[in-house]
Design brief:
512 residues, alpha+beta, 3 domains, nine-stranded mixed sheet, three-stranded antiparallel sheet, 14 strands, 37% helix, globular
Length: 512
């Protein structure tokens, strides 16, 4: 009898996934006994249960509905698909919002949201789309139309706050890139030297930490000059009554081009100066003149006129100084290395040099510039707690769209938190666990839909805060039905700004 050998194909057939799926469905029925350190649990699966880990998101959805922001944003989206299998705009944009709120910073993180069967209904969605649909959504689209749509949505978010004096803070941050993205080039990257990066040029509304706009540029275009065109686009979109009272920035922005452009437009400015030769000469001259005025927290100030090489005119320059905390071994140094200030004896100071078109006193100058440090907190929050640290694709267009998308959702959530607690500001690292995260179960009975929430130890405080907010929003939607969405949004802003409506005598100067 001859030996029978079955032929082996060159490309063996893979696993039969249909069989795996059917067997997986059958495996959901039995209950499993799981022994742990403390006790035994009976485990069973219920994939169809309407539950969500973001149970309190319903209040945020009420906030968006009362302001009319979300519906208008979806309706104005320029995306148009021809394929019958393409996701709907409500599902696509709603997934973006849910992903940003949940703390996702990679497209792959969207998969964790697909089991949520509660919150999509609050945003008018049918389902959460896949990560591939989200990643490819804006590919090969008209970049100018998308930019106009996003900037208009950002403007509609913060426009009611611009009716009073406010300050625009300018800054740029570097985002390291770990891949082969368009315009990911070697540039200034202090945290990851030698790593390609993108530069995010941003305009912020001071104190409220609202992002007015963000532009993504190549890693080599990190200098402030590359962000000026977008700054003036934002400025030109505003009416004369909406434009900032002051534009403020660090030493990267204290250059002739930006100051001359501000002066041409009649825009007041306050910028820091680098420790150049001309700046050191002014500091030495002021040290010889004396007459330093004591300010606050150990700072003192003096002022003079400065015209550096390349400047077209002299400008008012304010110099602030403060004794260094550690004076040991420094008083006898002939030269202060990092400032170039000659010191023979006496205390050693650290200096801050500001150039400005303002006429306010030195105490106000010190106060206004020190407030600018808060923009660093906003950058830290956007990069580490939101999605500016991720959502990268090969083309720069989708990186730009993702940056503005995250900024928009960040603004919405920031304003929602301030509306819930106007007297206190919270970052996402504390506000999301407090006002978003709660196990929610959807119960439908008798024609009513009930969302039952299970909270943590601060349940009583959270319930009080969200209940008061919900009553306020319900009053806008129900008791004042004649109000248009724009009018309701202005009333929401009025509640947010209530803690800042102090008597004018209480302020050193308008501070945004």
């Amino acid at each position: 009898m001859s030996l029978q050998i079955s032929p082996i194909p060159a490309h063996p057939q893979g696993e039969d996934f249909s069989a795996l799926i059917s067997s997986a469905g059958a495996a959901l029925l039995p209950v499993m006994a799981v022994d742990t350190v403390g006790r035994r649990f009976q485990v069973e699966w219920d994939p169809a249960a309407p539950v969500t880990p973001l149970g309190q998101l319903v209040f945020f959805c009420q906030f968006l509905a009362a302001g009319g922001l979300y519906s208008k944003w979806v309706a104005d989206c320029p995306l148009r698909y021809t394929s019958p299998n393409a996701p709907s705009l409500k599902d696509l944009l709603g997934t973006w919002v849910l992903a940003s709120l949940s703390g996702a910073w990679r497209y792959a993180h969207v998969t964790a949201l697909r089991g949520d069967r509660v919150n999509p209904e609050g945003l008018g969605m049918a389902k959460v789309v896949s990560e591939d649909s989200l990643r490819r959504a804006f590919e090969h689209q008209d970049g100018s139309a998308l930019a106009a749509w996003q900037t208009e949505a950002l403007l509609g978010t913060y426009a009611p706050a611009l009716a009073q004096p406010w300050i625009a803070d300018l800054d740029v941050t570097v985002k390291p890139i770990y891949g082969h993205q368009e315009d990911a080039e070697l540039g200034y990257n202090p945290h990851k030297p030698g790593r390609p990066s993108h530069a995010y040029h941003t305009v912020f509304l001071r104190t409220l930490r609202v992002a007015l706009d963000v532009e993504v540029r190549s890693g080599k275009e990190h200098a402030c000059l590359h962000g000026l065109s977008n700054l003036w686009r934002v400025w030109d979109r505003l009416t004369p009554g909406q434009r900032p009272w002051l534009v403020c920035g660090d030493a990267n922005y204290g250059n002739e081009r930006l100051m001359a452009q501000c002066e041409e437009r009649g825009q007041k400015y306050l910028f820091r100066q680098r420790s150049t030769k001309g700046v050191r000469q002014l500091v030495r001259w002021l040290e010889g003149q004396g007459g330093w005025q004591p300010l606050t927290e150990g700072w003192s100030g003096a002022e003079g006129q400065l015209q550096l090489t390349g400047w077209t005119r002299k400008r008012r320059t304010v110099v602030l100084r403060r004794k260094r905390p550690d004076q040991s071994g420094l008083a006898s140094l002939p030269l202060l290395a990092d400032r170039g200030v000659e010191v023979v004896s006496g205390p050693v100071y650290e200096y801050v040099v500001l150039v400005t078109s303002l006429e306010e006193n030195l105490l106000t100058m010190s106060h206004l510039y020190r407030q600018r440090a808060d923009v660093e907190n906003a950058y830290d929050e956007l990069k580490n707690q939101w999605g500016w640290g991720g959502f990268t694709t090969r083309d720069l267009l989708r990186c730009q769209i993702a940056a503005r998308m995250v900024a928009l959702v960040y603004n919405w959530w920031n304003l929602f938190v301030r509306c819930a607690e106007p007297a206190r500001a919270r970052e996402a690292i504390t506000s999301r666990p407090m006002l978003l995260h709660a196990v929610g179960r959807l119960i439908k009975s008798g024609g009513q839909t009930t969302l039952r929430l299970t909270q943590h130890a601060e349940a009583s405080h959270i319930q009080s805060v969200l209940s008061k907010l919900s009553l306020f929003l319900s009053g806008l939607l129900n008791a004042a039905e004649q109000l248009k969405p724009e009018e309701r949004w202005r009333r929401i802003w009025h509640r947010i700004l209530e803690p800042y409506r102090l008597p004018a005598a209480a302020w050193l100067a308008p501070s945004g």
